Amino acid sequence: MSSTSEPVHLSNNHRDTLLKIFQHPSSHNIEWQAVLSLLGAAGSVEELHDGKFRVSVGNETETFTRPKHKDIEVQQIVDLRRMLTSAGYDAVVKELEEQGKED
User: Fold this and answer.
1) Mind listing the pLDDT tens digit for each residue in 39-57?
2) What is the DSSP string of 3-56?
3) What is the pTM of this model?
4) Which end of the chain has fewer CB atoms within 10 angstroms, the N or the C?
């Protein structure tokens, strides 16, 4: 079963954020604003009430709550990995890692 959308071209900042999301062990300094920017480029972001955001990437839609601090939480990283993997961005990460981020 194929995804209805292919991964889009990302800016260098978006690529860096994507790599941080897929980094093992998880990075603890992934800024919320950088994640929102990446998700807006990869799909759509709709701000709801009470600091919540409805995000759609590929066939996945998820609601995220704005973190209390500037960085996202570990569970959000897990959810983002699942969502971005489903949309094919894990292949983008592998390609970037193979290129050494030099594009």
Assistant:
1) 999 999 999 988 899 999 9
2) -SSPPPP--HHHHHHHHHHH-SSPPS--BHHHHHHHHHHHSEEEE-STTEEEEE
3) 0.85
4) N
